[in-house]
């Protein structure tokens, strides 16, 4: 017969004069002070749960609670600047859920710093907990996401502004499909083609039309391609038997890309539509 496992107690939160005890999802007890929770939070203890002497079970892990409860005591709070995303994300959720105000602010700042590596998660967090300025910051990264994902993330009142925002990106894409030096003329020898299939360059002509078609294929994926211009203009991994790229074409590609990047900087901020 096995005896039930005794829950361990957090080494930091084991105050003898504690008047409320929480249990993490991985069975660690936290003995803390009700008055600290009253002063620093709005959602502790969770509504609807009786706290008269019994242990309050929470769904968060002990790692999360260990950090969270430090924010309700008068001590130097964790800076979270080296906290990995896997730890920070549940902490931020818990801070919002229980309205632990001192933790909410720092979590929000740290998650903003991680938006580039975790755009989906940060967008969900910003939308769910109503951080409009953070949504605006993540918006350009959300352009790279599938439209369906974005629709799932966004609250209903932001769907129409989002559609208008995407339209601005679509306009940029439309103008991006016209390279500054044209589609078909070679940079040398006045070589002209009448159609893609009929293109026959003189021996001295460069292969500009070839590179144009190559980039257009990649841009043709849609507005998401505007978020990965490195890939669009990457000429290091083309199919076999491509012609060697000439300096004139190289310059023209740089120029084309610069034109697109410039247009992207002109796109209004998402907040202008919201
Ligand atoms: Zn050329």
TrEMBL record:
Native source species: Mycena metata
Domain of life: Eukaryota
SUPFAM superfamilies: POZ domain
Organismal lineage: Eukaryota, Fungi, Dikarya, Basidiomycota, Agaricomycotina
Name this polypeptide is given: BTB domain-containing protein
């Amino acid at each position: 017969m096995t005896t039930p496992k005794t829950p361990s107690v957090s080494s930091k939160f084991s105050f003898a004069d504690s008047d409320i005890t929480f249990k993490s999802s991985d069975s660690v007890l936290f003995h803390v002070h009700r008055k600290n929770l009253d002063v620093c939070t709005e959602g502790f203890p969770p509504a609807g749960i009786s706290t008269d002497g019994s242990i309050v079970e929470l769904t968060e892990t002990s790692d999360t609670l260990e950090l969270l409860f430090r924010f309700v005591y008068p001590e130097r709070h964790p800076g979270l600047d080296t906290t990995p995303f896997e730890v920070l994300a549940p902490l931020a959720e818990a801070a919002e859920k229980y309205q632990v105000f001192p933790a909410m602010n720092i979590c929000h700042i740290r998650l903003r710093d991680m938006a580039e590596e975790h755009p989906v998660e940060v967008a969900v967090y910003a939308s769910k907990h109503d951080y409009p300025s953070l949504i605006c910051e993540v918006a350009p990264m959300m352009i790279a996401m599938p439209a369906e994902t974005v629709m799932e993330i966004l609250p209903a009142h932001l769907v129409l502004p989002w559609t208008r925002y995407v339209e601005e990106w679509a306009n940029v894409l439309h103008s991006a499909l016209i390279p500054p030096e044209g589609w078909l003329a070679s940079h040398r020898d006045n070589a002209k083609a009448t159609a893609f299939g009929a293109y026959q360059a003189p021996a001295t002509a460069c292969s500009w039309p070839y590179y144009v078609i190559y980039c257009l294929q990649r841009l043709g994926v849609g507005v998401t391609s505007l978020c990965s211009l490195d890939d669009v203009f990457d000429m290091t991994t083309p199919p076999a038997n491509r012609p060697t790229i000439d300096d004139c074409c190289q310059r023209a590609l740089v120029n084309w890309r610069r034109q697109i990047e410039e247009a992207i900087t002109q796109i209004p901020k998402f907040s202008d539509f919201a």
